[in-house]
Amino acid sequence: MDYDIVIPPTADGALEVTVVSWIKNTGDHVSKGQDLAEATTEKITLYVTAPADGTLKEIIVSAGTKTKIGTVIGILAGE
Amino acid sequence: MMERNRKGYWLDLNLMPYAPAFEIQERILHARMAGRIAPTIILQENSPVFTIGRSGSRDNILSSPEHLRSLGIDVLEVNRGGDVTYHGPGQLIVSPLLYLGDIGLNANQYMHRLEDVLMALLERYDIDTSKKDAYPGVWLGEAKIAAVGIAVRHGFTFHGFSLNVAPDLEAFKLINPCGVSRMNVTSIAQVLGRSPGMADIKSTLKSVLEKTFSLRTDLISWQALRLEMDQLSPDDRG
User: Fold this and answer.
1) Which of the listed residues A2, A74, B106, B222 has the most CB atoms within 10 Å of its CB?
2) Touching check for A43 and chain B: CB below 8 Å?
3) Strand pairing partners for B99?
4) Whole-angstrom distance, CA of residue B12 vs CA of residue B203
């Protein structure tokens, strides 16, 4: 099954964040909890982690793009 | 109802270079995420270094690499939020390794709570500071006296804040601190005309931090903490 990869809801929902980098590439195998991407506000870095074991299937929000907390930024194909 | 304070550790690394100190922070963070170590407050002073956060740019370092080398100032890119800042002797860097779920705050609230901690600490020394909406950190008028920059992984916090106790303020003139040009920076020593002493400030900070986050921390050395982490590693437990 596919899992949404979301900016974690550990900050205010209205907060604008920038996806600064994808640590993993499409097609990479990842384990649950592994870092996939980094998103930042001016003073906060949030790590986006894998919701399950699987493969990074799709990057929806590319690095350098501004988005909001809770946004789906990619899709993980679970094992 | 009386709230029970969580037990934690108070780890004072004193003066050491940024990179090995950050390695220690990462090791403790991973142990925290694995549920092996109690909340830990890490304190340190660093050898002179400019660090560039995830929102930062080398363009905000105004001096040439050659000049920085001659001054003995390193440059490192790091994984906290924020832009360029200076760390050096006389500046206290504090990294609370907490769990947001334990303290009932989201990342943004937590960052502002750290500003509250700094303001309460400075008030104990009769220094009246404020926050600015657009510029996180703690300010004395138009001069910044403390910077905040946090990171969160799986709800676990790292990095934190830096407080200018009595650092060399000239170093800040070689950068646009936090990406802001011509930003004034000050210190406790500059404001009071003397420094109360790092040990005194750490002791006051301990009481403010513990009260704010309902903690009761015990002083521990890195050697003792490392031993505890190693003894409790999942590999050893089989």
Assistant:
1) A74
2) yes
3) B156
4) 11
Contact A46 B106 (CB under 8 A): no
Q: Which residues of A touch B107 (CB under 8 A)?
A: 10-11, 44, 46
Q: In A, which residues are within 8 Å of B109 by CB distance?
A: 12
Question: The domain that contains B117 carries what CATH number?
Answer: 3.30.930.10
User: Does domain A2-78 fall into CATH 2.60.40.790?
Assistant: no
Average pLDDT of the residues in B189-208: 95
Q: Is residue B1 included in any domain, yes or no?
A: no
Question: Does residue B180 lie in a domain region?
Answer: yes
Are β-strands A65-68 and A16-22 bridged in parallel, bridged antiparallel, or unpaired? antiparallel
Residue B47 resides in a domain: yes
Tell me the C-alpha distance between A26 and B206, whole Å.
Answer: 45
| Tokens describing residue B14 | 């004193």
- Domains of chain B: total: 1
Q: Tell me, what's the ipTM? A: 0.85
Non-local (6+) Cβ contacts of B142 within 8 A are B184
* Residue bearing the bigger pLDDT, B110 or B2: B110
